[in-house]
Design a protein that fits this description.
Structural class: alpha/beta
Number of domains: 1
Helix content: 40-55%
Largest sheet: 5 strands, mixed
Shape: extended
Order of helices and strands: EHHEHHHEEEHEE
Strand content: 15-25%
Strand order of the largest sheet: 3-2-1-6-7
Number of strands: 7
Low-confidence stretches: 1-5, 14-18, 178-187, 195-207
Number of helices: 6
């Protein structure tokens, strides 16, 4: 590996807009049809099989994509930084549960950690505490709900995307992090957000 040509990546999960709407809509429709059938009847059993096939298709598609994305990331980046999220705790949340399960974040992390063992890349987990709330430039705590996607600090005036602010905080928490501010744009970290099980979206700049 030529590390001079590779970069570091801060990877976070975004719990919004991660469901593939078309296939989810189709699944719900078929489940509604199933609920109208007489349990145990031939029509019920046929409809149950249709629902099971859609579930299998979703699972296979998701796992296949996670392998493709993880392989692509390992080829491109030396170090991938992750928030050490409490997935079990998050799936008990009434709002986050469906989104986190759809994103398969836990599965993705396990695949990523397994693959880096045979490469020169590295996965590093850091504490997720307040990464989205703390201002990456001055350290002031700026409270936000999940609906607020922009970081605006009233103390230092930093005005950047919430996920980019989080990425800088994650980098600063890491073993290769720095207390130097990246807010001015000359050395901003690259951030990828797992918003959909079918794609990785780059949200920030190259480190």
């Amino acid at each position: 590996m030529n590390s001079k040509n590779k970069k570091n990546l801060i990877l976070i999960v975004s719990p919004l807009n991660i469901r593939r709407k078309v296939i989810i809509k189709k699944l719900k429709k078929q489940q509604q049809h199933l609920s109208r059938k007489v349990k145990g009847s031939n029509r019920y059993n046929k409809q149950k099989l249709k629902v099971a096939k859609i579930h299998k298709k979703i699972t296979n598609s998701r796992v296949d994509n996670l392998h493709k994305v993880s392989t692509d990331l390992i080829r491109k980046y030396d170090i991938i930084f992750l928030e050490d999220l409490n997935i079990k705790g998050m799936v008990r949340h009434p709002y986050l549960a469906k989104h986190i399960n759809d994103a398969s974040w836990g599965t993705f992390v396990r695949i990523l950690e397994y693959k880096v063992e045979s490469t020169g890349s590295q996965v590093e987990k850091v504490s997720p505490n307040n990464t989205s709330q703390i201002c990456s430039q001055c350290g002031n705590k700026v409270l936000k709900t999940l609906a607020v996607r922009w970081h605006r600090c009233p103390v230092c005036g930093l005005n950047i995307d919430r996920d980019e602010n989080s990425a800088i905080n994650i980098l600063q928490k890491s073993t290769v992090g720095t207390t130097e501010s990246y807010a001015h744009g000359d050395e901003s970290p690259l951030l990828a957000s797992l918003e959909d099980s079918s794609s990785m979206k780059c949200e920030a700049h190259v480190l």
